[in-house]
Structure formats: structure tokens, C-alpha cells
Amino acid sequence: LDEFPEETTWEVTDSTGALLYEGGPYREVGALITEEICLDENGCYTFTIFDALEDGICCGFGEGSYNLTNAAGEILIASDGTFSSRESTDFCSLFTCRLEGDINISNAATINSADGTLFITAANGSAPIQYSIDGGTTFQSSRIFNNLLAGIYKVVIKDGNDCVYEEEVMIDFVTSTKELITNYNITVFPNPTDGVMNLEVSGINHADIFLDLEIYNALGKRMHITNLTKYGDRYIGQVSLYYYPAGTYFIRLVNEDIARILRVVRK
């Protein structure tokens, strides 16, 4: 748990949405809580964790995290505890490989400049997660690959249960023509910033009034989740790095139509 355990609750529901188990809120700051529940070994379920003040259990006010294992000790869910008001994950009692990946790209400035970035997000995997962009020849624990030339990269994600996800992606280079055919527009300013930036997104297919975004540090650790608010056909909001040290950060917009990762600098 984090420094505010009274904000944390959780539940397990079946495939019809019926509530089977629930827990929390808790009292002891930073405590390790272990709960045992009994489920059909052939069933599939949903685990949801809630935070009443919408700041998760990591990392602004403590280093909370959680995982779910079955009777064989296999990790079915593992989370770093960074979410907003809730985080829901589907799982089955019998272990099956369900590792997935989502790859965001920051294109190179020119065909010869080594300033492209690949940002890889793994889902439904078990720690430790390893990442490769050379087809699995070499791996690293960080999900961020910087200083890349334009070209094709063979991404491989491998988790602690030896599950593997593979995808081939391309880092392009920016030209005015390519920018014109992009179906969405993202504006962030000022960048570099002394602490607070304005962010505006338009041209995306997203019906909700809020658009979630995640902030990561240069090592690929998720630091915070917040959101933008919809006004007409645009999403607008502010992103604060005021309490973070100087350095490079990455903003990931949680939307399947947006494949870009935003590189921002805190002065």
C-alpha cells in the first residue's frame, strides 16, 4: 500500500460482471496485504483496484504495487501501482500466455539524424519484462529506446513466464508532406518547460469526455497518470512536471489511434 491505504479498495467479478470478492479500505500505511480467494480453476475473471482520490498507489505518495498469482505460483497479473481512479485486468485461473505490446514512436527529424525513439508498453505479462528491437538478439529492462535512425525495427517483448510478443515497426523521418497527411494534431508548449506545459489534441476518434495520458521518466518508469478534457472537437489540459527533477520525460496518450510518443524536457 501507499501512504493513504484508506483510499484503496478492490474487487473480483466473473464473466457476467457479478461480484465475487472485494477488499479494503485498509489502515496500515505501506503495509503488505495478502488476500486468498477461491475461484473455479477453469474460469476467467476481472480484477479491479480502486483509488478514492484518483492517484493510484504509486508513486507520488509511496511505492505501492500489486500482483495476483494462482495456486501453482504463476503470476497472472503484475502492476506497478500507477493508475488514476481504477485499473481493471482480465485473467484466467489457469495460466495462458496473454502478453501484448503497444508501441509508440517519435520519428527522426531527418533521414540521417539519430534522434528517433521507440517506447514499448507491455500488457498482461509477468515480471521481469525484457525488451528488444533487434529481433531478440539483445534485450534490456527499459522500455525506451532512444537515438535511433529512421528504419525498420523488429520488436520482441519477453516476460518472466517466457511468453513472447513480436511486432515489426518503422521509425520514419519528418517531412512537411507527411505532417500534412497526419489525421490528428498534437501541440505541447512550452517545451522545454520550467514545470507546467499546455497540451492540445485534435482530430482523434475518441468519444469519452476525458483522454488519459501517462508520464514516464527517461528510464521508462511510469510516474503519473492524468487526463485532458474535451472541449468541442479538441482535448485540452495542462501537464505538470513541477515536482520532478530536470531531465527528459515522455508523454503517452492512451488512445489506439495515436502512435506517437511526446518527448518533453524539464529545465
How are the elements arranged and paired?
Elements: E1 8-13, E2 19-23, E3 44-51, E4 58-59, E5 62-63, E6 66-69, E7 75-79, E8 86-92, E9 100-106, E10 116-123, E11 130-132, E12 144-148, E13 151-158, E14 164-171, H1 176-181, E15 185-189, E16 196-202, E17 210-217, E18 222-231, E19 234-240, E20 247-253, E21 261-266
Antiparallel strand pairs: 1-2, 1-3, 3-8, 4-5, 6-7, 9-10, 10-12, 11-13, 13-14, 15-16, 16-19, 17-18, 17-20, 18-19, 20-21
Can you put this structure into words, describing what you see?
- The structure is a single chain.
- With 267 residues, the chain is mostly beta strands.
- It has one helix spanning 176-181; strands at residues 8-13, 19-23, 44-51, 58-59, 62-63, 66-69, 75-79, 86-92, 100-106, 116-123, 130-132, 144-148, 151-158, 164-171, 185-189, 196-202, 210-217, 222-231, 234-240, 247-253, 261-266.
- The protein has 1 helix and 21 strands.
- The strands form 6 sheets. Strands 15-16-19-18-17-20-21 form a 7-stranded antiparallel β-sheet, with no helix packed on it.
